[in-house]
Design a protein that fits this description.
Helices cover 5% and strands 39% of the residues. The termini are far apart.
Length: 166
């Protein structure tokens, strides 16, 4: 894997000056290990993931570090775009902070996602439910995912979780 930024473990401080992002960087071009290229705005990265709003589809995605081969930060002329942000959260912690959301999960090695479902992150698992009573329908191992796409979010979210629903 060829990384242009080091994705450090949680034991090391992410708050230090361990790399420099281009001044005013507000966009990330993510080369995925399966050959896809994702261009993200509203970018947040943590110790084992990068997330953001896809420019082409306007959906929020989270890519685990294992699915990323390289990331290039750049600056688009739009001054309304927030700069790239950093968190010390792991991907699981970050998704837990979003609360119950509707997502689609792309398992590693599959080109099609699982059906959309309401999800909670519980430990190493996504608990998926499409039932009205929120009964668990399926468990998916967090470690088996190559991409998570958030389809619908709770409007109570705030910018501490990486973005704000207006």
């Amino acid at each position: 894997m060829n990384l242009s930024i080091p994705l450090l473990t949680k034991e090391k401080s992410l708050a230090g000056d361990w790399f420099r992002i281009e001044h005013g960087a507000n966009t990330a071009s993510v080369n995925c290990s399966d050959g896809r290229l994702e261009t993200l705005i509203y970018v947040v990265f943590g110790d084992d993931f990068i997330a953001g709003l896809r420019v082409d589809r306007k959906t929020w995605i989270l890519l685990p570090a294992r699915s990323v081969s390289s990331v290039t930060f750049s600056s688009q002329g739009a001054n309304w775009l927030p700069p790239v942000r950093q968190t010390s959260d792991s991907a699981r912690e970050y998704l837990q902070g979003l609360g119950r959301v509707y997502i689609q999960i792309w398992p590693i090695g599959r080109s099609e996602p699982l059906p959309p479902a309401r999800a909670d992150v519980q430990g190493s698992w996504f608990v998926l439910s499409r039932a009205d009573d929120d009964a668990a329908e399926r468990l998916v191992s967090f470690d088996s995912t190559s991409m998570v796409e958030v389809l619908e979010m709770d409007s109570r979210l705030n910018s501490d979780n990486g973005w704000k629903v207006q």
